[in-house]
TrEMBL record:
Glycosyltransferase as UniProt keyword: no
Main location: mitochondrion
Domain of life of the source: Eukaryota
Originating species: Malassezia sympodialis (strain ATCC 42132)
One CC-aspect GO term: mitochondrial inner membrane
Name the record gives this protein: Cytochrome c oxidase assembly protein COX20, mitochondrial
PANTHER family membership: CYTOCHROME C OXIDASE ASSEMBLY PROTEIN COX20, MITOCHONDRIAL (PTHR31586:SF1), CYTOCHROME C OXIDASE PROTEIN 20 (PTHR31586)
Length: 119
């Protein structure tokens, strides 16, 4: 159901579903193919790298201070999840704000262009 003229930079024509779901088989991509394309998803790479670096740091600090290996691993996983989700949400929010600003600028530009044509 692609509309003419709408394309995605990464995946070609965009298709819209009335009831989108992450579990719906809208694309024929397997889990492995989705994982391979993960670095192309905006904000995914930076948030995952930030989470990994934090997990390694927190886990190492826990081990150095003698907290035990299992407890250190629990803190590592927890910090990875927390920082990755926090980084993802922060990045997505800033991208949405930037897109809204760009949309506003484009609308103002179009209005000025129309006004200059009329004059």
């Amino acid at each position: 159901m692609a509309e003419p003229g709408l394309t995605s930079r990464l995946h070609g024509p965009m298709e819209y579903s009335e009831n989108p779901s992450i579990f719906s088989p809208s694309s024929a991509m397997t889990l492995w193919e989705q994982i391979k394309h993960l670095p192309q998803v905006p904000c995914a790479r930076s948030s995952l790298l930030m989470g990994m670096a934090t997990a390694a740091s927190v886990g190492t600090i826990q081990v150095v201070f003698g907290r035990g290996l299992q407890r250190s691993m629990n803190w590592s996983v927890g910090s990875f999840l927390f920082i990755s989700i926090l980084g993802w949400e922060t990045c997505r929010r800033s991208r949405a704000a930037e897109q809204a600003r760009m949309r506003s600028i484009m609308e103002q530009f179009e209005k000025r262009r129309e006004q200059s044509r009329r004059s």
